């Protein structure tokens, strides 16, 4: 295998995919490549992926490497973090098997993740899953005890202008199948016109579907400037101690419509709580993280806040994650003939009982009798 191309390099894959172009090589530092990252790289039609880290560590069965492999994108794995010292954006490199060259000099070696190697590593991960699940449950319960006061006691909800009264809300998160699920419920969005809440990159998903987010909630690390400028309001997720890393970016953009929401947990948790506390009739969630694998992919060891939030808002929450798989039927040509046949039946009945048609039928009957000699 020999591949030559320009690179885009970033320690955060979600930042890299915003600027990489088809035919370029992605250089990342991504432990356990997740589905969303792999699908994003695949959609960009990258030439290859060079990972400074382990694409499959063995902690859990992450599907990212398998997705890239199926897309025909080679992965040069575990090349070491030194590659970030010797490469810079738009450098040209050549990959020969498991070796990486720049200006004809060898700069790094890695491992080529073939389909068989990926499958073998995935089986190893499954054996470790029970241990990981046990640790995950214990961590979730431990933190739930610490954070329960946040859910039970009065929360300092931002004083936003968006009106939720007698309205439904749609919370969009950049999670698995979020685009497919949004497409599936587009008629619901048109008919009901819910309050649209984009959680970080979920706001850009709304824009892709021609929808303007009423509110963007998050730490502002994966949402575009375009989405932030078009949003009705912005709610910055801050740590319980008041630190809000996303505030600097909002100030840089000179946006004065931002509120601070101090809370533990994830941004999608506080987005749902915001809708609930402001009186939304129903909360529909798309792309949310709700399983152990979801949270391990996000680098979290538990899901205490999500567990507590769903306990509180459960009566109003409809999780539409994966709704696109609920019913998906292939279009068949027989459907067209069925529709035509159904439409012809009433036309045939009307024509049969009309006087001109009856006279024509009588004439045909007389001619037939004369021909047959009756």
How would you describe this structure to a colleague?
One of its GO terms (biological process) is thiamine diphosphate biosynthetic process. Keywords: ATP-binding, Kinase, Membrane, Nucleotide-binding, Transferase, Transmembrane, Transmembrane helix. InterPro entries: Put_SteA-like (IPR047795), SteA-like_C (IPR022215), TPK_catalytic (IPR007371), TPK_catalytic_sf (IPR036759). Residues 193-233 form the Thiamin pyrophosphokinase catalytic domain. It comes from Aceticella autotrophica. With 374 residues, the protein is of the alpha/beta class. The chain has three domains: 2-113, Alpha-Beta Barrel (Aconitase, domain 4); 152-325, 3-Layer(aba) Sandwich (Rossmann fold); 333-372. 43% of the residues lie in helices and 19% in strands. The chain is built from 15 helices and 15 strands. The chain has helices at 13-16, 35-43, 64-70, 83-86, 115-152, 178-184, 186-192, 202-208, 225-230, 247-252, 267-277, 292-297, 304-313, 333-353, 355-372, and strands at residues 2-10, 25-28, 48-51, 75-77, 92-96, 99-102, 105-109, 111-112, 168-173, 195-199, 215-218, 233-238, 258-262, 282-286, 317-319. The strands form two sheets. An eight-stranded mixed beta sheet has the order 7-6-5-1-2-3-4-8. It has a seven-stranded parallel beta sheet with strand order 13-12-11-10-9-14-15, with helices on both faces. Strand 5 (92-96) and strand 6 form a beta hairpin. The longest helix has 38 residues, at 115-152. The radius of gyration is 28 Å and the shape is globular. The termini are far apart. The mean pLDDT is 83.
């Amino acid at each position: 295998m020999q591949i030559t191309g320009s690179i885009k390099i970033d320690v955060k894959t979600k930042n890299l995919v915003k600027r990489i172009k088809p035919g370029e090589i992605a250089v990342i530092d991504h432990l356990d490549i997740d589905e969303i990252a792999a699908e994003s790289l695949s959609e960009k039609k990258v030439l290859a992926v060079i990972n400074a880290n382990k694409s499959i560590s063995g902690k859990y069965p992450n599907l990212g490497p398998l997705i890239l492999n199926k897309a025909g994108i080679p992965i040069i794995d575990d090349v070491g973090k030194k590659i970030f010292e010797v490469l810079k954006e738009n450098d040209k490199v050549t990959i020969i098997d498991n070796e990486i060259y720049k200006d004809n000099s060898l700069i790094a070696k890695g491992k080529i993740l073939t389909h068989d190697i990926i499958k073998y590593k995935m089986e190893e991960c499954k054996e470790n899953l029970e241990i990981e699940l046990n640790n995950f449950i214990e961590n979730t319960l431990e933190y739930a005890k610490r954070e329960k006061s946040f859910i039970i006691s009065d929360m300092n909800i931002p004083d936003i202008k968006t009106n939720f009264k007698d309205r439904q809300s749609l919370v969009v998160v950049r999670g698995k199948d979020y685009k497919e699920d949004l497409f599936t419920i587009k008629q619901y969005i048109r008919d009901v016109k819910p309050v649209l809440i984009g959680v970080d990159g979920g706001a850009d998903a709304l824009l892709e579907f021609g929808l303007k987010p009423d509110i963007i909630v998050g730490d502002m690390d994966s949402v575009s400037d375009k989405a932030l400028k078009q949003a009705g309001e912005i709610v910055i997720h801050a740590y319980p101690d008041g630190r809000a890393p996303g505030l600097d970016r909002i100030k840089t953009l000179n946006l004065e419509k931002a509120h601070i929401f101090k809370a533990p947990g994830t941004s999608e948790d506080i987005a749902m709580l915001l809708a609930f506390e402001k009186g939304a009739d129903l909360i529909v969630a798309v792309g949310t993280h709700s399983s152990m694998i979801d949270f391990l992919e996000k680098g979290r060891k538990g899901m205490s806040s999500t567990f507590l939030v769903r306990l509180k808002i459960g009566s109003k929450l409809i999780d539409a994650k994966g709704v696109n798989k609920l019913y998906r039927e292939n279009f068949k040509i027989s459907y067209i003939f069925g529709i035509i046949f159904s439409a012809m039946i009433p036309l045939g009945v009307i024509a049969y009982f009309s006087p001109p048609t009856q006279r024509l039928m009588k004439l045909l009957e007389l001619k037939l009798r004369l021909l047959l000699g009756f």
